[in-house]
Design goal:
Blueprint lengths: L4 H24 L6 H79 L2 E10 L8 E4 L12 E3 L4 E8 L4 E5 L6 E6 L5 E7 L2 E7 L11 E4 L13 E8 L8 E7 L8 E7 L40
Antiparallel strand pairs: 1-2, 1-12, 2-5, 3-4, 3-12, 4-5, 6-7, 6-9, 7-8, 8-11, 9-10, 10-11
């Protein structure tokens, strides 16, 4: 419709009529004269409104679902993040508990042997200065560490310090082929020299070729002059195999070390030797033998069994 004077007059007239109808409807209340028209309009346009609503509502629901889905995704992502942080914390706590357990065990060994130790942590493993079995620890000259100091942990002998830097040191492990330590057999006091064989048991040459030793016997360090590189009494390992005596000047035994060299974490460097040889006091208590169960069989004669040797 073009904007003319007549169209403007018609728009004003329709607006006036609309206001008049609204006024009449409000004043009439429930008896409004336009109720019939309203009902008729509702009858005609109601199905159309419902159809439009049915068509539009899924779209609105879909939009709301997408919006809520984003919120749910954010919540799930946050929960996953919180769970990962919790798992990391629990893992860290487990590691810390393990380290505290190792530290407590090492302090107990140091107390029993009267060793003055400097605690350290293994920070690297690998070849160093031509040695095949070495670790690097996080203490050095600034901590009072010097070359040829004994290194132990809560299980026993770890090795000896070979190289010292300002804040780190290199430790040659007891299972290295270039490693040798004097040993003393528990109870019998038989002396020998233990040498590393990598991932195989230590090889120990007993000075007494006729020494009586058995599988399960235990050894400790004999100690060195001026307690360097080894202090006495540090647990070394358990005899796992004995070579038959061939009448030689020495006798060979193989020893399973107490220390697991592939699981080193917390160690201690002996910075002060004991005043007296601790002998065998640092060795752990021997495991109690597991009793072998005995079975007693009781035979009960049946009623059909022959009596007094008579045949039935």
């Amino acid at each position: 419709m073009r904007d003319t004077r007549e169209s403007r007059l018609l728009l004003v007239l329709l607006t006036a009529i609309a206001f008049a109808l609204i006024t009449v409807d409000i004043r009439g209340g429930q008896d409004s004269p336009v109720d019939g028209a309203r009902l008729a309009a509702a009858t005609v346009f109601g199905p159309i409104e419902n159809g439009v609503s049915s068509a539009v509502n899924p779209v609105g629901n879909a939009v709301a679902a997408v919006r809520d889905s984003g919120d749910r995704h954010d919540r799930i992502a946050q929960l996953e993040h919180d769970n990962a942080a919790l798992k990391a914390k629990l893992g860290s706590d487990d590691r810390n508990r393990s380290r505290l357990k190792q530290l407590d065990k090492m302090i107990k060994v140091a107390g029993e042997g009267q060793y003055g130790i400097k605690g350290a942590q293994v920070i690297a493993i690998g070849a160093a200065q031509g040695f095949s079995w070495t670790v690097t620890i996080d203490v050095g000259a600034h901590d009072g560490i010097t070359r040829d100091m004994t290194v132990l942990n809560g299980d026993g002998l770890v090795g000896r310090v070979t190289t010292v830097g300002p804040d780190t040191a290199t430790v040659l492990l007891a299972n290295d082929p270039d490693f040798t330590v004097g040993t003393r057999m528990e109870s019998t006091d038989e002396l020998g020299f233990a040498s590393g064989q990598g991932d195989r048991p230590l090889r120990v040459e007993l000075l007494n070729g006729k020494a009586k030793t058995n599988k399960g016997d235990r050894l400790v360090t004999f100690g060195s002059q001026a307690d360097k590189p080894f202090v006495p009494g540090v647990p070394v390992g358990v005899v796992s195999r004995v070579d038959p005596s061939g009448g030689g000047l020495t006798r060979t035994v193989y020893v399973r070390p107490f220390v697991s060299f592939t699981k080193l974490d917390i160690v201690g460097v002996v910075v002060e030797a004991p005043k007296n040889d601790p002998r065998d006091t640092v060795l752990p208590a021997k495991p109690k033998p597991t009793p072998t169960p005995t079975v007693t069989v009781t035979v009960t004669p049946s009623e059909s069994a022959p009596v007094d040797g008579q045949q039935q």
